[in-house]
Amino acid sequence: MSNKEDKIHILFVNPFSSSIGVSGADKSLLSLIAGLDKNKYKVSVAFPIKSRYLEETTDSFYREEYEKSGAKLYHMRMCVLYRTKNPFALLKNLLFLIPNIINLIRIIKREKVTIVHSNNTAIIGSGIAARICGIPSVYHVREIIGKPKIMRFLYPRLINRLADVIICISEAVALMFLENSVPHYKAVVVYNGIDLSHFNKPLDSMKLKREFTIPEASPLIGIVGRISPRKGHVYFIEAAAKIIKEIPDAKFYIIGWVESHAQVYTELLNKLKTLINSLGLYKQVMFTGVRKDIPDIMASLDIIVMASASAAAPEPFGRVIVEAMAAGKPVVSTNEGGAPELIEDGKTGILVPPADSEALAQAVLSLLKNKELKKNMGALAKESVQNKFSEHTMVANTERYYREIISESHPELARQQFQTEPKKTILYVNPFSSAIGVSGADVCLLDLINALDKNKYRIFVALPTKSQFNKELRTSYYYNDYIAAGANVHYVRMCLFYRTLNIFAIAKNILELMPNVIGLVKLIRKHKVKIIHSNNMALIAPGIAAKITGIPCIYHIREIIRHPKIAATAYPYIITKLADKIICISEAAASMFRKFNSKERDLHVIYDGIDLTMFHPDIDGTKLRKELNLSTDIPLIGMVGRISKRKGHIYFIEACKLIKQKIPNAKFVIAGWIDSEFKPYLELLNAVTSRIEQLGLKNDVYFLGNRRDVPEIMKALDVHIMASSSYAAPEPFGRVIVESMAIGTPVIATRDGATPEIINGENGILVPILNSEAIAEKVIFLLENKDYYEKIVQNSISTAHEKFDMKNSTHEIITLYEDIMERK
Predict the structure, then answer these.
(1) Tens digit of pLDDT for each residue in 161-172?
(2) What pTM value is reported for the model?
(3) Of 316, 488, 683, 805, which is most buried, counting CB atoms within 10 Å of its CB?
(4) Residue 661: which CATH number?
C-alpha cells in the first residue's frame, strides 16, 4: 500500500454542483472518484459557495455521496464564466477570479496536489492556478456551445491554453474544439459511464403505476431530466396530445427538478402547466419532481423520450438515454448533439428531428403499436451499453490520460504507482503530407509508426498547415491513418525550400523559417521530445530546432537532386551540418551526401520496406477487371503513382500506341492522383489526355484516379510500367516497383536513379529513360514469352521478401533510435 505522501492527489473543481436535484455532472464525477484506486489516488473536491445552483447554501445535493467517497471537500467563492454577451455580468464574475485562483493555489501547495481536474469549462481559475503551480490541468467538458458564436470561438481556445488534456463526453463535444484548432490528441473523448449493477438487478417495473394508481394496461411514456428550456418539454407535451388521440389510455411523466429560485425556470414551469391545461392533458401528464430511484423509474416506463432542442446548447451526451437503454427500454430522442453516438437509429432507438412534436409523436406511436419492435429494440439497447458505457470503462479511459500526464510531469511518481518508465517522445516532421492522394512518404512513415512499441514511445507527427501538396488548412489524406496508428497529429506552418532559383520564392520561405523553428521548439520542450525525425530534406527548421533544444535530429532522404546545381550542392551540405543521422532510401540518394559526410556511421542506407501481408501473390485481382468489364484474357498494362512530369506518363502513352499495333486487344490503366490546384500538374494532365485522344486511345486508356485498393489494382495488371524520366530529379527509390514485385506482377522500369538497385534483369526489366519504343518492345516480349514471364514473377516475389520486408527496415530504424539516444 502506498504512503499518503506518495499518492497521486487529484483536486476536482466542480463549479456547478447542484443543491436542488439530480445532476449528470455530479453523478459522473462521483462514479469517477469511486472507481479510482484509493491505494494510488487521493481525492479532494472544491465546491462553490454560491453559483447558479447554490444561491443560499454551501450544500450539495450529493454532499453525502461525496463524503462517503472519501474525498476531502472544500468550499470557496468561484469565478464562473457564463455564456453571455453582457459585459457587466462578465466583469462581475471576473472580480472573483483572483480570490478564486489564490484559494486554489493555497490548496494545491498545502495538499501537494498532482493534477487539477476541472469538471466544467466555465471555470478558468482552476486552469490558471494549475499553470502557476506548474502542475497538469485536465478539463472535463460536459457541454456544447452553439451560441453565441463568439463564445464557441473563444471558449475552446481559452481552455486549450489552460489544459494539458481536454476530456470531452462525446465526439460532438470534441468537434467544438477540433474546429477551433485544438489538436485531436488533446481533445479526447471519454464517454460518461453508469453503474450498470443498478440496472442489471431485478427492478420494480410497477412502481409508478402503484404510486399514481394507473391501470396496469396503460402505456407510460416519460421524459427524465432537469426541467430547462433546452430540454424540449414543450415538444414532449405537444407530442403527448397527438399520441392521446390514438392511444387514449397513455400516460406521460415529467421526471426531474426545476430551479425554483431562477425566474426563467419558474416561468418555464408555469408555461408547461398552462400548455398542459390548454391541451386538456391535466389528467394524462404528471410531474414527479426530483427522484433518486431512477432505475425503477426507467423500468416503470414503456418508452423514454429525450426531446432536447437547442441551437445554443445542444445535448452534449444524453445520460438518461444510456440509463434508459441499460434498463432495456427503447428511447426516442432528437437527433442533436451526442445522441446519434448513443443510438443506432431504428435498431437501439429512434432519432427524430429537433423541435418536431409530430415526428416525436409518430416515433412513439410506432413503438406502442408494435410490441415486438419495442421489445427487440429494448433488448438490443440494453446489450449495446454493457461495455461502452460502463463506469469501469469510463474510469479506465480517464485514468489512462492521468497516467500519461503524470508520466511526463512526475516520472518518479509514475514509476512508483504504475511501475512504468516514461515514454520516449519522437517528433516526426512530414512537410509533404498529401492532402489529395496516396503518398509513398506518408505510407512509409505510417508503417514505421505502426511498428513502434506504443508502451515505449510516444509519437507526434507535425503536418503542414499549407504546402505544395496541402492547399486546404488542416487537411491531410492520411490524417485519420496517423491517428489510428497511435500518433498525436499537430499542424505547423512550415518553411519549405523547394528546388528553385526564384529569389522571391526563396525570400518568402526564409521569412517563414523563424516561425517554423519556434513552433517546433515549443513542441519539443512542451512534450519533452527525445528525437526529431524529418521525413524530407526540404525542411531545415527541424535541424535548427534540434540544435537549439539539444536533441538529436534524423533526416530521412527521399529524393535525389541533380538540378539546379546549386541546390544539388547546398541541400546535402546543409543537411549534413544539421543532422545527427541521415537515412537515405537508396544508394543513389546517399551518393549526394558522401562527399560531405566524414562520419560514415552517421549516413545509413535503409531501403523502404513494404507490408508483405498487404502485398502478396494471393490477392484477388479480378475486382478491377470486373469494374472495367474486362475479361481475364485481355492484356492489361498500367502505371500506378502520382501523375507528375518526372513520372513519364507521356512516354507510357506513346508506348501504349506501339503495343496496340502488335496486341490490338490490349488495354491500359493510369492509377494515381494529381494536384489539380497546382498549375503545372493540371497542364500535364491536359497534355496527357490530349495525347491519348491524338493517338486514338480514348477507349483503351482508363484513368482510375486516386485509389486505396492499390494491391488489387497491381494484381489485375499483366505488366506494371514505371516510366520515370527526369535528369533534375531521378527516381529516389521506386516503392511501386517493390509493391508490384511482391504481388507477382512483372515490372518494366526505366533505368533512372535507384531503380537498378531493385531490378537486376532477373526479377524485372530495365529500359532507357525517355524511350517509349523500348517500353513497348519489352512489354510485347514479356507477354509473348510465358516462360520468361513466369521466371520474372517468381524472382520478383523472392526479391521483395529478401530485401524489402517492412519488418527489417523498421527494425533498422528503431535500432538507430536506440543507438542515438544512448550516445546523447
Answers:
(1) 999 999 999 999
(2) 0.84
(3) 316
(4) 3.40.50.2000
